[in-house]
Design brief:
- This protein has 726 residues and is of the alpha/beta class.
- It has 5 domains: 3-202, P-loop containing nucleotide triphosphate hydrolases (Rossmann fold), CATH 3.40.50; 210-353, Rossmann fold; 407-509, Arc Repressor Mutant, subunit A, CATH 1.10.10; 544-617, DNA polymerase, domain 1, CATH 1.10.150; 622-724, Arc Repressor Mutant, subunit A (Orthogonal Bundle).
- Helices cover 49% and strands 11% of the residues.
- The protein has a 7-stranded parallel β-sheet with strand order 3-4-2-5-6-1-7, with helices on both faces.
- Helix 13 links the parallel strand 12 (303-308) and strand 13 (332-338).
- Helix 23 packs across helix 25, helix 30 runs parallel beside helix 34 (710-724) and helix 32 (679-691) crosses helix 34.
- The two termini are 57 Å apart.
- Mean pLDDT is 83; it is low at 516-528 and 611-622.
Amino acid sequence: MTETNTLACQLKKHFGFDKFKGNQEAIIQNLLDGKDTFVLMPTGGGKSLCYQLPSLLLDGTAIVISPLIALMKNQVDAMRNFSEEEGVAHFINSSLSKSAIDQVKSDILTGKTKLLYVAPESLTKEENVDFLRDVHISFYAVDEAHCISEWGHDFRPEYRRIRPIINKIGKAPLIALTATATLKVQHDIQKSLGMIDAKVFKSSFNRPNLYYEVRPKTNNIDRDIIKFIKNNPYKSGIIYCLSRKKVEELTEILQANGINARAYHAGMDSPTRTANQDDFLMEKTDVIVATIAFGMGIDKPDVRYVIHYDIPKSLEGYYQETGRSGRDGGEGICITFYTNKDLQKLEKFMQGKPVAEQEIGKQLLLETAAYAESSICRRKLLLHYFGEEYTEENCGSCDNCLNPKKQVEAKELLCTVIEAIIAVKENFKSDYIIDILLGNETSVVQAHLHEDLEVFGSGMGEKDKIWNVVIRQALIAGYLSKDVENYGTLKVTDAGRKFLEEPQSFKITEDNNYEEIEEEAPTRSGGSCAVDPILYAMLKDLRKRLSKKLEVPPYVIFQDPSLEAMATIYPVTLEELQNIPGVGAGKAKRYGTEFCKLIKTHCEENEIDRPEDLRVRTVANKSKLKVSIIQAIDRKVALDDIAVSKGIEFGELLDEIEAIMYSGTKLNIDYFLNEIMDEDHLLDIYGYFKESTTDSVDDALEELGTDFSEDEIRLVRIKFISEMAN
């Protein structure tokens, strides 16, 4: 058996996957060969597996340095669910008691523990350093490695101490992993960790299943967010705000509007914060409103949308946070609300900081503003920021590509920009170049005597906004480049010099104006769905019951794609279950019996044939109308709209709903009743049925009088029987 086949077999055995994603296999092999490894892989690309699988295959214990307690607990729980050995993974941090730490150390010394998660602060404690010196360490893994760099979006000074501590404990191969890093940040990480010669594995930053949209931030933002959430019921979502105060305010507004939301920020007491996070992971709450303190590495695969109430401080932060949606490859909608006033606030926050830090912060804000205001493909802009070229003309999954703007010729404008950059010897940033073009005699321009240059004022016929667009799109086209080391000074590339000699067509798209635009762009959704929706719903329900019973998040048991495959292939034995993606032997043995039993019963009751090729069956025609009505009510579609969409009268729809309700299915139509009926009116009818010995509509009409219609009584009767009998 070849080395490759051996690794693939180990992957199947331990994690239940048939094949590796992207660079995973090459990364793992490099680490198994004892070489330092640098991994740049977007969120959802499978970074964790790159150190989890090698830890199981190598002798000794792997040390994973991780920034957040929540992330450690999350990953340890996941590893234990892949293995039959509880002690396979542990963490050491400030949340553990002395006896718990003693148990961890015992499991490490007896060889049970293959993965030990530690925070940088815990790693530096003398007692932990002394203990780890006596442990056989297979390798070190530095997760969320961008925390090392001041140019990163989440700089943590304690990360700078990792290399000296590793040297104290004892050398071993090192793997550093991050989901977001520009070339500058990457170099910073490698230099700080002493791994300049490490082999670098860079995966594409493109997340095809994510939809990107920037909306104008108006006074109606709260209404817009509520409307969006109510149009996406029962879906997990994260809303990011910059301030703790806004997190608290927005959470209260959402709750007051019937949305199951929780708050999360660093100022909350630890038990409440942890409980709110766990409620989100366990699907007891749908929405988390949070500061950026929430979510780093939180391994919840089915977050369906990420909303930014405020524009983030950097594009790296934006990419990291939006990347928490659609990690399972399904639908991921990323909506950001933007106004230039927010950037002005962020700039004020930076005052008082060291000058170098202010320069870095301003540069990052400019990149964010450029992204938000641009009307070219957002995917192209994002990927360019991370040093990747996106060649498609229209990605089909961002607001700008779904609503393309007219392009205008800018050949002469680009020549003017290139001439100005060369004239100032390529030593200045874009805002200075624009001052030169517009003839602005600023103190800095005068200090350099640049008001005497021939190019000074050569662009006075255009607004500064147009020059911003030309420079930005010339950077993407490769005619200009930015010197990151010097805070973004503009350079002319070889292609740019050639363009100046032989100009050709160069078209630009004017920026969006987010102070004026009010209309909303249409959103696009993605994601797959199971062939048998009834079985899929039943499997999700079983998973939720098990998650409550076992006190683990639902996705730890099986992820959505695994349930979709079960509702397509109908496995009825543990052996067949292991053919499902994401179901290894450990998971099948631990959770599989009840799922197989449910699937078998469903197949028998619905007479679904299961030939050896596992042919797929769809839902029987006779139940399609009822199923679609139930699904529409679950999505809170207005009942009169359901009737219109099905081509039936409202009374006929009530007949169908009553049949569903009387068969024992609980239906919640409160959303519709609250919209069309006065509360006192509703309570009078409900009270009547509570006291009555019959559910006859005629009797109710006679008793209640002419103030009540037949439809109203039938609707409240559905509510009453659903709540009291089902």
